[in-house]
Amino acid sequence: MADFALYSYQEEVVERALRRENIIIWLPTGGGKTRAAVYVAKKHLETTERAKVVVLVNTVHLVEQHFHKELKPHLGHEYKMEAVSGDSKESNFFGKVVEESDVVICTAQILFNALTNMEENAHVELSDITLLIIDECHHTQKENVYNEIMRCYLEKKLRGDPKLPQVLGLTASPGTGGAKNLEGAVEHVLQICANLDSAIVSTKDCTTELKEKVPRPFKSMDIVDKRPQDPFGDHLKGMMQKIHDFMTLPPDFRLRECGTQEYEQDVMTLEQRGVKEQNRILAQCALHLREYNDTLLINDTLRMMDAYRSLEDFYDTKTENSMDETDDFLVGLFQDNQVKLRKIAKNSQYENPKMGKLETVLRNQFGPDVESRGILFCKTRKSTHCLNDWVLNNRVLRESGIKAAVLTGAGGGKSHMTQNEQTDTIRKFRQGALNLLISTSVAEEGLDIPECNVVVRYGLLTNEIAQQQARGRARAPEAEYSVVAQTGGQEVRREHINELLEELTGRAIAKVQEMSIHDFRTKINELQKEALIGRKVADMHKMEKRGRFNASAVKLFCRGCFKSVASGSDIKLVEDTRYVNVNPEFQKHYKLGEQVIKDKTFGNWEPGRKLICNNCNKEWGYEIKYKKYTMLPKIAIRNFALETPEGNMLVKKWKDVPFTVEEFNFEEYAKDNFPEMTIG
Predict the structure, then answer these.
(1) Are the C-beta atoms of 189 and 512 separated by less than 8 Å?
(2) Do residue 263 and residue 366 come from a single domain?
(3) What is the arithmetic mean of pLDDT over 254-263?
(4) Given 101, 202, 450, 453, which is the most exposed site by the fewest CB atoms within 10 A?
């Protein structure tokens, strides 16, 4: 196939990569980083003996997107290529796929699994790869799977292994890593460079061309005054005060202002304390207060009826679930105030002024004879559905020709979308059947979304990376980037801070680029050694923590009712990631709920029905059908607390439990539970 051309600014940023240096390309969203990387891959394949290019991405969508839009058109005629994701059958034979291909694009998890899997057909060595391209490489930090892969690389590098792949990272937004000053931001950029063993490059000579090809959208701060009266919010706060009085806060504990993220953090801490102390009044009141706080936040962003329905939905699940006087009080409080709340919520004179401003912003960008595309970013899945309902029922917006749909992350919950649903929604958006996506952060990076005329951020408090990614979606000529917020609100302050942090990121990168090669390399090597030592120390601590107690000395009790239901020794690990209770007695403690639906298929298991506590109706996890006929209860540790010889404790993930979980032995389990069956 004929060579393909790059813009001058792209040629500038790939120059060092073509000399086989490890580099990170820093270009804005829409700047053509992927195209530049494919160009480097093409030159690498043409000039390298036994070349093997692996492209890593962080979502399944990006595997297909980059494969069909960039890699296949430019490389597919001359080279053997494969796209592999968790959904692909090829993921089980990844070693063979890499061996037989010139170019492989896959999710990072696939490669990491292959690096650690010693089975012949599945295993891959980093030395098998000659060029490793890492998309959205700013994620290469902390416990991210990108960083797990690069730790394997750095261990080999520091041992003097000469056969390592060239690394090419791509990012639009390295960020400052939470740093608020130049010194801290420089340290963060250097850490990412160290993690990727790469220098960071950007255009210096062709900035004018870059600005012409990737213009920044016009920014509009669409600010509204605070609503003059908020009887709905005031009534909720009065109800919350009654809960405060009922539960008696510990003398050393203070709750911050309700209706804020800080208050949410406080009541989550309070719930954890209640569980550890087995103080059910404290734990349950904290859970209900969190729902009230969520309702206040919804009232601040959406319609009053959206806020009311959210609280009503929560109490619909609680009315038949009373265990003691705490439940009676909490449910009774809502029921006594339900009619009053609904009546206020229906009164349009107290409606949220932000909704009126949002309507104006959208109406200005859309019209019956106007071809326009937009994304409305909001915080939660619940918000996306409420806003979609508002658009569908808004006569003015319908007459403006708005055809909206929700776009949220893939997952197993009711409000999650499947990957097929995501793909279908984006296809309709591209074709024009839809012209407004109401989205969570899932649309900020990774998905192949056409350039937009308008991007609106609504009720969002996010960091500078998310802000840059969202703004980068407004790439159509004369596009608008709008922030709809309240005067003096947190969103306005955060937007301003993010702008300062974005500028700080640029200054930090410039400082790193000004370093001499010697100073840069010395600093990078120092950070790499520190990181590997730190990792070894952390691994030792984890091992010590896991061996702290004998599994049989730890009990699991339900986080909802505090009933003891299992021993640590009942828990086994299935295929490295699924924790199941193999004690047949455990089934006495739960009942089965609705069937769990997953978007993809799994090797040896499939999901069954939800597990629900017999005593308090708390959801615990779900059954899995293993090896086609064995039903095992798979439980989430976040739904339980641990009773240990040193007191009660909570952990968010199974990897943090203070005892060793043994691998599940299917043959032994079958022998004990199905003695009549012969295991072949």
Answers:
(1) yes
(2) no
(3) 92
(4) 450
Lowest mean pLDDT among 37-41, 340-344, 460-464, 591-595: 460-464
Q: Check residue 543 and give left, alpha or beta (phi > 0: left; psi -120 to 50: alpha).
A: alpha
400 plus 439 within the same structural domain: yes
Domain identity same for 177 and 56 = yes
> Where does 159-230 have alpha helices with state H?
182-196, 207-213
| Spatial separation of the C-alpha atoms in residues 6 and 535, rounded to whole Å | 40
What is the number of structural domains in the chain? 4
Does residue 533 lie within any of the structural domains?
Answer: no
Domain span holding position 590: 551-673
Same domain, 331 and 368: no
Of residues 638, 679, 632, 630, the one with CA closest to residue 657: 638
In terms of domains, do 208 and 124 share one? yes
Q: What is the mean pLDDT of residues 144-171?
A: 95
- Look at residue 665 and tell me if it is in a domain: yes
Q: Do 202 and 266 reside in the same domain of the chain?
A: no
Q: Are 437 and 425 in contact (CB under 8 A)?
A: yes
Domain stops at, among 298, 330, 350: 350
Amino acid identity, position 538? A
Taking a C-beta distance cutoff of 8 angstroms, is the pair 115, 152 a contact? yes
Note the pLDDT tens digit of each residue in 54-101.
999 988 888 988 999 999 999 999 999 999 987 666 667 899 999 999
pLDDT digits (tens, 9 = 90+) for 129-138: 999 999 999 9
Statement to judge: residues 23 and 169 lie in one domain: yes
119 CB-near residues (< 8 Å, 6+ apart): 95
Q: How many Cα atoms within 13 Å fall on the side-chain side of residue 4?
A: 15
CA 352 to chain centre: 29
531 occurs within a structural domain: no
Beta-bridge partner residues of 610:
622
Inter-helix orientation angle 490-514/182-196, to 10°:
60
Residue at token pair 């989550």: 268
Please compute the mean of the pLDDT values over residues 22-48 and round it to a whole number: 95
Q: Hey, how many other C-beta atoms are within 10 angstroms of the C-beta on 254?
A: 8
Q: Is residue 501 part of a domain?
A: no
% helix, strand, coil for the chain, step of 5 = 50, 20, 35
Of the residues 212, 247, 276, the one at which a domain ends: 212
| CATH code of the domain containing 299 | 1.20.1320.30
CATH code, 468:
3.40.50.300
pLDDT tens column, 386-444: 999 999 999 999 999 999 999 987 655 556 788 788 889 988 998 999 999 999 887 67
Q: Are strands 640-644 and 647-649 parallel, antiparallel or unpaired?
A: antiparallel
Q: 435 exposed, middle or buried (CB, 10 Å; 0-12, 13-18, 19+)?
A: buried
Alpha helices by DSSP H, 459-516: 464-471, 490-514
Q: Please give the Cα distance from 293 to 314 (Å, whole number).
A: 13
